[in-house]
Amino acid sequence: MEIRRPASRWAGGPALRRVAVVASTLVALTACSQPGDVAAPTDAPAEHSAPELAHVHGLGVDPADGDLYAASHFGVFRIPADGEPEQIADRSQDTMGFTIIGPDHFLGSGHPDPAETDQPPHLGLIESTDAGQTWRPLSLAGEADFHALEAAHDQVYGYDSQTRQIMVSQDKTTWDRRAQLALADFAVSPDDPDTLLATTQEGPARSADGGRTFSPIAGAPLLVLLDWPATDRLVGAAPDGTVHTSTDGGAGWTSQGQVPGQPEAITTHGTNEVYVATDSGIYRSTDIGRTFSLLQPLT
C-alpha cells in the first residue's frame, strides 16, 4: 500500500522493552498525524478512480443485517459475504476510531474526505444512524482525533491521539479527561465501567478506576489490539499476528491461531467469530481464533 505512515500510536512514550519487536507494527497501526499536524488524507484515490479498501483502522458487525463494516483510510466499507467491498456513500473519510453501538448506529472519528473542505482536520466525535450513509458532529470538532473508541455502560470511552489521553463521556458531548499514556488500543470490561485494559509497549496494563491510572499485568503477552465482548471472552492480537484469548479478564492468556501480516484492527461477533484486519487482508475465525480464513484481501 502506498499510503502515509507517520509515527505510531505509541509515539511519545518512554523507550521500553521489546520496542524493536513492535516497531513495524506501530507504523502500520495509524494513518493519522501526530499532535499539532494537519491530517486530512492527501493520498486518497485519484478522482474518478474506483476506491479501494486499504489500511483498515476499525472493524464492526452491524446488528441490523449482520454485515461486517471496515473503517479505513479511504472511508467506511461494507464487507458482504460475497462480492466486493462497498464504499459507503462514496465518501473517502479517513475514519480512525470506529465502533458500532446498535443497529445502523456508528460512532467514529478521524479526518474528512478531501472534498469536504468545510470540515476541520480533526472530526472529533461523529455519529451515523444510517450505517455510515451520513455523519453528524457530536463534540470536539477541530480538537480531538480518537484512534480508539468504545461504547459501554451508557458511556463513550475514547483515546485522543492529540493529547494521548483516555477520555470518557456520558452524553457524547462533555468529556472527562483521564490518564495520559502511550497506547495502541484499549477495551472496557463488559461487567465493570471502571475496569479497562490498554495495550502499551510494556504489555497490557489494567485500570480499576475508569482509566485514571494503569498498572502492568504481570506475565501477559505483548498485544497491540483488544476486544472484550463477554466476561469470559477477552481477545487480543500480538504484533506478529498471534491471537490470544483470556477467560479471566486478562490475568491469564492462551495462544490460539495466527494471521499473516501486521494486525491493524480486531472485532468479535457472537460467541465464536473473530475478525482481524492486517496490512494484507481481513481474516475470519469461527472457532474463537484457533484457525483463520481469508475473508477479504487488501490492496
UniProtKB/TrEMBL annotation:
<protein>
    <recommendedName>
        <fullName>BNR/Asp-box repeat protein</fullName>
    </recommendedName>
</protein>
<dbReference type="InterPro" id="IPR015943">
    <property type="entry name" value="WD40/YVTN_repeat-like_dom_sf"/>
</dbReference>
<feature type="region of interest" description="Disordered">
    <location>
        <begin position="239"/>
        <end position="268"/>
    </location>
</feature>
<feature type="compositionally biased region" description="Polar residues">
    <location>
        <begin position="243"/>
        <end position="259"/>
    </location>
</feature>
<dbReference type="InterPro" id="IPR054817">
    <property type="entry name" value="Glycosyl_F510_1955-like"/>
</dbReference>
<feature type="region of interest" description="Disordered">
    <location>
        <begin position="190"/>
        <end position="213"/>
    </location>
</feature>
